[in-house]
Amino acid sequence: VRAEIVERLRGAMRERGLDALVACSPENVAYLAGLVVPSQPLMRWRHAFCIVPLDGPTAMVVVDMEEHTVRSRVPGPRYYVWREFAGDCTAVVAEALRDLGLADARLGLELDYLPARDHAALRERLPAARLEAAEGLFARQREIKTAGELDLLRRLSRLTDAALHDALAAAGPGSSELELAGALTGGIYRGGAESFKLLIVASGERSQFPNVGPTERRLRVGDLIRLEIFGVLEGYLAGVCRTGIVGAPTAEQERIWRNLVESKHLLLDTLRPGASSDAIYAAYTRKFAELGVGRPISFVGHGIGLHLHEEPYLGGGPDRRLEAGMVLGVEPLLYLPGAFGLQLKDMVAITADGCELLSDYTATDTLFPVGHVARAGQ
Amino acid sequence: VRAEIVERLRGAMRERGLDALVACSPENVAYLAGLVVPSQPLMRWRHAFCIVPLDGPTAMVVVDMEEHTVRSRVPGPRYYVWREFAGDCTAVVAEALRDLGLADARLGLELDYLPARDHAALRERLPAARLEAAEGLFARQREIKTAGELDLLRRLSRLTDAALHDALAAAGPGSSELELAGALTGGIYRGGAESFKLLIVASGERSQFPNVGPTERRLRVGDLIRLEIFGVLEGYLAGVCRTGIVGAPTAEQERIWRNLVESKHLLLDTLRPGASSDAIYAAYTRKFAELGVGRPISFVGHGIGLHLHEEPYLGGGPDRRLEAGMVLGVEPLLYLPGAFGLQLKDMVAITADGCELLSDYTATDTLFPVGHVARAGQ
Prior knowledge:
The structure is a homodimer of 378-residue chains. The first copy, chain A, is of the alpha+beta class and 378 residues long. The first copy, chain A, has helices spanning 3-16, 26-33, 64-73, 89-99, 116-125, 135-143, 147-170, 177-190, 251-270, 277-289, and strands spanning 20-23, 49-53, 59-63, 78-82, 106-109, 130-133, 195-203, 224-233, 236-245, 301-303, 310-314, 327-330, 333-336, 340-343, 346-350, 355-357, 368-369.
């Protein structure tokens, strides 16, 4: 279990007066354990828990078939194992909590994840314990990345960006969307990611649709192509999107792209500790309005890490002050129904006095010239 | 909303004395709506609900940003829309239930999915309603596939099998695991799947590890290769695994493969309505014991459809009698720690008087001869 995360969480528990935290979502178990329990996100009844007392040893509760995997990679905590086909995992969680002297403690749980059935069973098994909502506590801690998380997200953002770059650079008229997808996903694995999510390959008239996978459609001169993917490593996500053009863009496409690039620079210029998320979103929508077409997205950025979207949002949510250590996905975009779509999505970390572009591999000042190289700084 | 599914569920509700069902998991919403609400499985707070009263109109509760997508593809139900950043979706669910005259009804919910927080909020907003567990009712109905579901799973199983076949047939000594992954995933999309899950590419010594993605490792003569993928279409899954050999297998590898193939035929010979899941598993473990090495998997098959694993299990779970319309994934396998692994995973439907192999594209009587064609019936 990650000592640095445990210490942070203990600080927050002390403030809240909690005696222990019981993580149960795949994200927060991964946050503590440093690995995704493999089948937990795939089969929701394969519960895993990580218990962090204010004082005393941490503990993991895992299903029998994951015990070997987790034990071999997460040394340190006490292990409590429940058997998949032999009943209810909450019996083992309750046993672990009693064993740790927490049977009558104030326990912080993830009530936005723990199913109602398991919550009721825990309440019955631990009648003297107080079960309180702690999802906000976890979310708040996860907003501010550790140095290790930043290193991982920097590496992951760059390799994801590089894979997009190389796939677009290797394509040309006649390439199919499927060939692009193969090149892209190959690059993601080769770059060192463990897997990926949300592959979007949308060329020509398909570029107007937000979430579409690859087809046999082949690139033609004049096509725009929106290429997006989230690289995944140790449970963390980095989402990057590039838009390419086969041949020369129209004046209108150039004009729109210029607006998206100016929006990106507006964001990079204003993202810093203390900045207001609402003010940044308002500045973005003013820039967007210069286009005179389309509607702005309801948020132009959001926290990202162990989940696709985390707090804070830039737009939509409550007004927030940014802080050093936050990592955001930012994505100026325009979908023109019936015509085409352009999107520019990057990963950005808030630093002590500004921000750092993590997805800095591809030059984005012009639409990506498909079939050519577009390295930043070249 | 699918009329046939609604009718089935109404029959089960009548038996249970429920006034309405409220589906909230991505699987059961897809089961009713016939589409996966795109961001529901990705962001767990983006709740979607499908309400099926015993009498009266069905209703969907969706988040604002999915309204257009869902409305355009699911005509018929009443729509209630909640706004993502403006509060709590349970307020809109409660409003919908009141509007449908169900404020004091017996409601069947998925208490193994609905988070404790949302359950508590619903209870508070609908103090006169009785909220009961109905996850078992949904699971039971989903065990028996409709003709439409069977058609889809047949098509999906075959295209998944064909993509595995073509990727292994196109490979050879020197091919990298990443190249195989690219060929395989390309084939999955080309065959008509929308996406895929759980890609496993495990060659040589890596074939002993259960869940590993592709690397830059290149095939050498004498390598085994375990290639597995789940094709995904409209939320349904079909998982198939083939094991190939580069060049000639050793006598030991041939002997093990023969055992796995005999296990497959044993399963195909015994899977039929009325058969006992425990008896089938016991027969499988007897066959496995002939190998004299390794340990048998704790279940050799499981239901599959909108979730990776569904009831019934062949082994592990309670003894069940099979029924026509069930679809099972069956997977004889052997992992030899420190050496190699072989796996043979197929999709099978229980018919009126036996079973039908859905993944029937690849001949599996011998290890797949990598670089050659292994079409069944050729």
